[in-house]
Design goal:
2 domains, mainly alpha, globular, two-stranded parallel ribbon, 278 residues, 11 helices, Arc Repressor Mutant, subunit A
Amino acid sequence: MTLDVFAYLDYRELLRQWYAQKKIENPRFSYRLLARKVGYSSAGFFTLILQGKTNISLTMADSFAEAMKLKKKEREYFLALILFNQAKDPTQKERHQKKLESFTAFKVKHLGPERFRFLSKWYYIAVRELLTFLPFRGDLKALGAMLEPPISAKQAEEALALLLELGMITKTAQGGYARVDSVLTTGYQARAPEVEQFFLAMHQLGGEALSRFPREERNLSWLTLSTTRAKYKEIIEELRAFRLRILEMVEKEPKEEVVYQFNFEIFPLSKSVPGNKK
């Protein structure tokens, strides 16, 4: 699998996925070998980078780009991504974000707090995805009836109005609507009330799917297990990688026909045993 550099808004996640891929291709590839390629002395330094405990300079970033064999535009994007991620000043961060969005191959749109209203109702995102393949020409009642569960014509109208206001859809010359930006993200650190409300709504819909759909049309499963905090962090990284692989799979599909919701949840069912934290 070839990583799409332009599908990332977090350079640490990009480095993490690139290393994982190299490790699959060559089991002997290691942090120590990477250190020699990039030019830093301690193999553990890469761990500190991935954990966000240290930043990297543009000189080192260029060495990473060389090790990753990035092409010219990919290298430029990678360097701009590092400046974006490491910027402390909001004005600088916004400037670097605009730089990222200027790349024609850019695929991920970051949702700032001013656009979190998009997540305040579960059907806003569903309507947006539906418009990627539904030939909608103004029948709001029919649009609402396409969702599961259905929404009213008034709710469909409300969704279209908000999506247009936030620039997430646009009107076409044919009188319909088209989605703007293929992939959206709030980032891993988002904690706004709208984001929490969205998770709760989607969790409720997931539970209702048990009775709403026959088994062959939905897939619900679970794992209950005991492990260490360190292993938990590894699992989270695997989930992030899996989400990216799903997005890549969907991006390569030439035609859409159904809107699906994937819910990923993992949370404690117990307290840690005193003196046994890892």
